[in-house]
Design goal:
The chain is of the alpha+beta class. It contains five helices and three strands. A hairpin with a 2-residue loop joins β2 and β3.
Length: 114
């Protein structure tokens, strides 16, 4: 069986509007948070309880925007962040987005005014 191949934009073709549009969805922002550990993840571990077609859609948007790198291995679809490429194009953007994703995922704390 031939491994699947995926198309990725070159580093110089990663654009800020596409990256921001890709990360404007809460599901994809959560995927970014999960990928921020620097490891490859099987696509099915990136979102809880999504139908396979919806998961495929979201991972494709991230890949086509240049946020992630995808490779097939057997039946798995392994995905990682393109940290080096994104840092080269937009220094400081990825850490800021990951920090926001982590804050968004944290349970709300009561305000001091309450």
């Amino acid at each position: 069986m031939t491994p699947r191949s995926y198309e990725h934009p070159s580093t110089q073709n990663i654009s800020l509007p596409k990256v921001l549009a890709a990360l404007s969805d809460p599901i994809r922002l959560e995927m970014l948070r999960r990928l921020s550990d620097g490891q490859e993840h099987d696509s099915i571990t990136l979102a809880d309880d999504l139908p396979r077609s919806t998961l495929t859609y979201h991972t494709r948007i991230l890949r086509e925007a240049g946020v992630t790198w995808t490779r097939g291995e057997g039946r798995m679809c392994l995905i990682s962040l393109r940290t080096r490429d994104l840092d080269a194009r937009f220094p400081g953007l990825l850490p800021a987005l990951v920090e926001q994703a982590i804050r968004d995922a944290s349970p709300a704390t009561p305000s001091e005014d309450s």
